[in-house]
Amino acid sequence: MTVIVWDVDPDMDGNVSDSWEGVRVKCLWCRSDGKTVLAADTHHRIRGYNFDDLCDFTVLQEDHPVMSFSVNKADRLALLNVANQGVHLWDLQDRCLVRRFQGVTQGHFTIHSCFGGTNQDFIASGSEDTKVYIWHIKKELPIATLTGHSRTVNCVSWNPVYHQMMASVSDDFTVRIWGPRSSSLDGVENDKTVSLETTNSSNTSGWHEMVS
What we know:
The protein is an all-beta fold. It has strands spanning 2-6, 16-21, 25-30, 36-41, 45-50, 55-61, 66-71, 77-82, 86-91, 96-101, 113-116, 122-125, 132-136, 144-146, 153-158, 166-170, 175-180, 196-197, 207-211. The protein has a domain at 102-212: Methylamine Dehydrogenase, Chain H (7 Propeller).
């Protein structure tokens, strides 16, 4: 697979600026420095490609395939969905594994997890067992498990403005919107409560499905 960057200058007519020849790339992320792109490849690693210095380097190495990853707003932490391993949290600066989140079923389907909450102190991920898992970033065990989908949940996205809302997408052909039971967004049509399994007593408010 070739890694290519196009210049967005309107006078460049979409010409290729730089490229690297390499292994197959599964996922990309542009860093906040405006010059580095992170890429997960088939060698179970994430490499950095610097388009100013035209250099590349290994950022982290896993023992199993990295199916997808995302980076938090501080550009410091990376959240990886790893085949047969689940969700891993890495420190990009220190290049070390910080935490392995437990509970999620992750085989070889591509599942996308995300950071969320006001300060991105929470983690959410879909799972092959049809559930959505939520963790506090400092705890390995989930604080909430959301049920409602009937097939693999392959993507979740936390609302960046209304931090009490989250969306999930599944192979059951539905998109579901979730929020806490104490949410102020009342009166939404088709509002219905779904079951919530909690493993942490601090999660007393619970979540419910707002729209599907």
